[in-house]
Amino acid sequence: MIRYTFRGRLQQLRFNSTKLSVSNFTDKEVSLNIEGKPITFSSIFLRDACTSPESVDATSQKLFTTAEAATKLEINLPPVVETTEEPTLKIQWNSNGQLVNSSYSLSFLKKNLTSASRRAERFFDHDKKLWDKSELTNNLASIHHKYDSFLNDDKTFFNALHNLNRYGLCFIDDIPRPKLTEMNESNVPHWPVAKLADKFGYIKKTFYGSLFDVKNLKSEAKNIAYTNTFLPLHMDLLYYESPPGLQMLHAIDNSTLGGENIFCDSFLAAEHVRLQDPKAYEALTKIPITYHYDNNNEYYYYKRPLVIEDPEAVGEFPKIHTVNYSPPFQGPFEVGATKDDPAYEMFDDFIRGFQMFENFINDPKNHYEIKMPEGSCVIFENRRTLHSRNEFSDANGGDRWLMGTYVDGDSFRSKLRVGYRKYIQ
């Protein structure tokens, strides 16, 4: 039992739990002992996190603003710990004259002890793995899933999500051939790739449409992907403010000569640069690359560095949030071009890092190459996994028809978190 003065009155506070207790408090902060470790929480944080009926409605939406809650915020009664099924901190607030009763479970408090604990149920860094040709080839069986099971079995769907988080790609097999022969916006829901995308929530429609056919359109092509020429490693739609998180490509016909798909882990390449030349890597995180699409009565534009880090990432996996690499859609650089530009000297470091990155991703030992079987679909993270395609020829009378679509990364991560909550945690 401890003694303290509360607004001029001598108070006594009893330790209510060996796992959770209050050691001290003021209107500004609350000091706790959580499983033997001292921690002090901001009162504004605690009040803002309140989920009482006065604070959050049935839809889990807040009924107040942070600024409102922080106005003349006081603790009205001494905080106590109640122990029923789980030790729970109870605080009655006086927020600008309004009394609010708040409860904070031990699990909630533990979850918010550190940035790592707050992140744990949201990004699953510990399950991510860098890969090269050898790593992926040795684990191919684990990243292949059956079409019917993906659509109808929640555990298979989660396994696919898990692999997308782990390696940035997975494959769906045994897809029945579509009964339709021509795609348009009115029949989108009937295509297998649309059904795969719908499992994540919704399709990200772009100026290519909800779905897009990847065929050899020759002179009609508005994108190099719609020709039979070699397509270098790249990511899609980096000229968008919010590029899609996932891309799907369903091989309907794939009997031409060549046309193999190539995939590469851009995170492994970025980490290679960081380990070999930290100064060059730093430049890759700071010099923005211009991306644009100015064609077919469309003009898109955005700037972003090659590597965007995630400083809150934990564990051994690199602190990389996304990589942005798409040479076919690069525009002129807008920094470092003239000597009076502050980034001029750094541009040499950037070019050195860029060259190291490209040399690494173009090394076949870092590629996974596959002639996609008809009736299969690859799903890959567009902000991590680089994709390419070899040149192909229909001289053998073969045909090549892939159908693609996009899904937002938010939809993927939402389903991933729900799956972890159900099957792992």
Topology:
Elements: E1 2-6, E2 9-13, E3 20-25, E4 29-34, E5 37-42, H1 43-48, H2 66-70, E6 73-75, E7 80-83, E8 87-95, E9 98-105, H3 106-111, H4 115-119, H5 133-137, E10 144-146, H6 147-152, H7 154-167, E11 169-173, H8 192-198, E12 211-214, E13 231-234, E14 246-254, E15 257-258, E16 261-265, H9 266-276, H10 278-284, E17 288-295, E18 298-305, E19 307-309, E20 320-323, H11 344-361, E21 367-370, E22 376-381, E23 385-389, E24 392-393, E25 400-407, H12 409-423
Parallel strand pairs: 10-11
Antiparallel strand pairs: 1-2, 3-4, 4-5, 6-8, 7-8, 8-9, 11-22, 12-25, 13-23, 14-22, 14-25, 15-24, 16-21, 16-23, 17-18, 19-20
Describe this structure in words.
By secondary structure, the chain is of the alpha+beta class. It has 2 domains: 20-113, NE0471 N-terminal domain-like; 133-424, Double-stranded beta-helix (4-Layer Sandwich), CATH 3.60.130.10. It contains 12 helices and 25 strands. The protein has helices at 43-48, 66-70, 106-111, 115-119, 133-137, 147-152, 154-167, 192-198, 266-276, 278-284, 344-361, 409-423; strands at residues 2-6, 9-13, 20-25, 29-34, 37-42, 73-75, 80-83, 87-95, 98-105, 144-146, 169-173, 211-214, 231-234, 246-254, 257-258, 261-265, 288-295, 298-305, 307-309, 320-323, 367-370, 376-381, 385-389, 392-393, 400-407. The strands form 8 sheets. The protein has a 6-stranded mixed beta sheet. Strands 6, 7, 8 and 9 form a 4-stranded antiparallel beta sheet that branches. A 4-stranded antiparallel beta sheet has the order 13-23-16-21. A hairpin with a 2-residue loop joins β17 (288-295) and β18 (298-305). The longest helix is centred in the last third of the chain and has 18 residues, at 344-361. The two termini are 36 Å apart.
